[in-house]
Amino acid sequence: MQASAVEIRKVNKYYGPFHALKDVDLSIPPGKVTCLIGPSGSGKSTLLRCINFLEEYDSGEIRIDGQLIGYETPGRKMSGRKLREMRRSIGMVFQQFNLWPHMTAKENVAEGLIRVRGLSKAEAETRAAEALTKVGLADKMENHPSRMSGGQQQRVAIARAIAMEPRLMLFDEPTSALDPELVGEVLNVMKTLASEGMTMVVVTHEMGFAAHVADQVAFMEKGELVAVDSPQGIFHAPKDQRIQNFLRTYHERNSF
Amino acid sequence: MEWSILEQYGPSLLRGFGVTVLCWILGTIFGMALGLVIALVQRYAPRFVGWIVQAYIEVIRGTPFLVQLFVLYYGGPLIGLRLDAIPAGLLGLTLYGSPYFAEIFRAGFRAVPHGQIEAARAIGMAEPTIVRRILLPLGLVSSLPALVNFSIILTKETVILSIITVPELMYQVGRMSAETYRYLEANLVLALFFWVLVEAISRVGRRVETRITKHLIERT
Amino acid sequence: MFSIPVFLDSFEPLIWAARYTLLISVLGIVLGLVIGTLICAARLSSNMVLRKLAALWVSFFRGVPLLVQLLVFYYSLAVIGIDVPATFAAVFTVGICASAYISEIWRGAIAALPKGQAEAAVAIGMKPSDVWTRIILPQAVTISLPALINELILLVKASSLVSVVGIMEITRASQAQAATTFRPLEVYIAAACIYLIINLCLSALGRYLEHRTAI
């Protein structure tokens, strides 16, 4: 399976008068993990959500494997059908899991396979079982989300995304809503995905994950992409004052 | 639509509207008062009193308003309750509205964070004072939208009073249409009148609500 | 004072009349559900004209008292000259009135769903129609169930108003019964009891359904 590459060029986004993304340029190399870090309100989640056009960017280009997403040509929006077509190859994991509460874990994972990929129910359920086994939840397949811990729910959400065989995975603060002791199980699944060569873009506050698993780290503040570098470059030798301030505050709050 | 009819019946229609407004306002006020009493009784009275009150609520909410009015107005005399139409209508509206108002107040009380009450108890405040200074002010603020909402519902219920001959607006329209044979027009205009009235009151109500809530929150 | 024999004797004719009460309430809510769903769809559509028309519909049928609606419809039919059984007219009016409330119940339920549910479906590329029928509607129905049962209870009570157009449901029958027995107190209290029993059963049904569908 070919992993996707994403090119973000001069992207701007406005919420009314508020300039949320300012001329953002970022390359997401295929098969690599890119982490987006920065203070709240920096626009990292907004940028992530622009990649699969859940948020509409106002100017600039976002291309996935060379194809523009969201627009046919600058100014002309893409048809709903084409957008859905592109989204099939993009997996997204949300901070709030967003599992469908009226379906079991297996049904949650199978739903996309049936409705979007057009598989038969039997085939979909087999693949769903495989995906759930891969994230370590083979024994929870018939459970409803209400009967699972946050960490388990998020792993089901990851299974739901990977069952669709995406070429790109977007993670929007996947562990922020979890109790600390449940964060590890989710990060482990993400590390496995990374080692298998998936292109991943992860918005996160887990600096340890970014430092050890990411291939590149992008720091954003107030809508601007301040710096993109290797983890070494961002965490151990940051040149920009803003990054230094951010890391210092982080260390103060998290070390004991 | 002949305007001379309006001239002829104008005064009686106006009087009818006056009766509607009177019944609505008094019914709302008394209903709210009784509802508040019920809500407080349910919160503080011993269990079996609470059951009796709950039974009353179930009965009123489980039976049609019209039947309640019939019991009061036509059935009342048999147990010595001889009321004229308007007093009977007012009594009916009050009794009908009280359980709904009580539920609204109860929800408002529940919305007051328990910690606030505990804090008051912790400094040794007496229960009646807690009710007066903490529970009621905060509870009333959260109840406000629902209270306004239900009183608007009561304006529509007033037309049912016409059936027990309370001379409110619909009753007068009924008399007018019977005498002029213009049943459809008269009731159509009545419908439009209520539509505009209810829509207007709802909008004003929402604006008043926001203003009062802001004001009350600033003061507490 | 209170005559128990008259009270008990009233039950038979009134229970017989209850079939009209139930007919009107049940058919009314079915009609209300069908029309209410359409109105709700119009309320949420991207077409501004549809949205405004639906908003007017809701505002009118919630703003005008049901009693007035009944008379307007009843007299309209007389003027147009259509010979329609009063029961049919009553069901129609009650159903249309209910549709306005039900549309708002649906709207509230749909709004209560966390936005993320639909977002997750959209993110894997699901068609809008599938997002509606597989994710949003099933949950909206479950959330609305208590409000819908409540609406049914309101309709049972509202059915007492159709007595004014002569339909022999519980209230009208009790008026007739009171006229023959000259004991309105016992008869009307009997009528109240029957309504109460019906509504208590519906409330119990509502609680059972809520319990069964709790996710």
Strand/helix succession of chain A = EEEHEEEEHEHHHEHEHEEHH
| Quaternary status | heterotrimer
Calculate the terminal CA-CA distance of chain A, rounded to whole Å: 44 Å
Sequence stretches where pLDDT stays below 50 over 5 or more residues of chain A: none
Mean pLDDT of chain C: 91
Largest sheet descriptor of chain A: 6 strands, mixed
Strand order of the largest sheet of chain A: 8-9-10-3-11-12
Low-confidence stretches of chain C: none
The proportion of residues forming helix of chain C, as a percent range, comes to over 70%
Radius of gyration of chain A, whole Å: 18 Å
Beta fraction of the residues of chain A? 25-35%
User: What structural class do helix, strand and pairing data of chain A support?
Assistant: alpha/beta
DSSP E strands of chain A, number: 12
The CATH architecture of the domain at 21-167 in chain C: Orthogonal Bundle
CATH superfamily placement of the domain at 21-167 in chain C: MetI-like
Compressed to H and E, one letter per element, the order of chain C equals HHHHHHHH
Strand fraction of chain C equals under 5%
What is the distance, rounded to the nearest whole angstrom, between the alpha carbons of the first and last residues of chain C?
52 Å
InterPro entries (chain C): AA_ABC_transptr_permease_3TM, ArtM/GltK/GlnP/TcyL/YhdX-like, MetI-like, MetI-like_sf
Subcellular location (chain C): Cell inner membrane; Cell membrane
Protein name (chain C): Amino acid ABC transporter
Main location (chain C): membrane
